[in-house]
């Protein structure tokens, strides 16, 4: 079968382009489902409200990669990620995230949120954040990339 005929056969059961794009191109069925990924992404952000490090870690694959922010050396595996989170928690770091947008595409989630942060002894600050999370086949977060512009830091 020629490539052209194979493509025609693949789309023959669809009558609408948006249905074909949604089901076959954008959200192939072999990934964790959208609800699971969005729920996990939001649960991850919520753990910063109460310092739930164990709950946060449970959302991640053991070999996860964590880049916060992108451009700094990535933390590889939970053995490196947990001490980073623990250090911030022990310093009294607290943040609440006001989620603006959640985009799910395949096994990737892109979050846009405003982070309201506090650290004892310093004035509170806010920051606009874009964060990508990639999920593995078991539904665990396997890669986080946090993007923010230092010039976008604001004070409340």
In brief, what are we looking at here?
The chain is an alpha+beta fold and 156 residues long. It has helices at 3-11, 17-26, 34-50, 53-58, 78-90; strands at 60-67, 75-76, 94-105, 108-118, 125-135, 141-147, 154-155.
Q: What topology emerges from the helices and strands here?
A:
Blueprint: H1 3-11, H2 17-26, H3 34-50, H4 53-58, E1 60-67, E2 75-76, H5 78-90, E3 94-105, E4 108-118, E5 125-135, E6 141-147, E7 154-155
Parallel strand pairs: 1-6
Antiparallel strand pairs: 1-2, 3-4, 4-5, 5-6, 5-7
Keywords:
156 residues, alpha+beta, Nuclear Transport Factor 2, Chain: A, 7-stranded mixed β-sheet, 5 helices
What does this structure look like?
It is a single chain. The chain folds into 2 domains: 1-29, no CATH class; 31-155, Roll (Nuclear Transport Factor 2, Chain: A). Helix content is 35%, strand content 34%. It is elongated, with a radius of gyration of 19 Å. The termini are far apart. The longest helix has 17 residues, at 34-50. The mean pLDDT is 88. It is built from 5 helices and 7 strands.
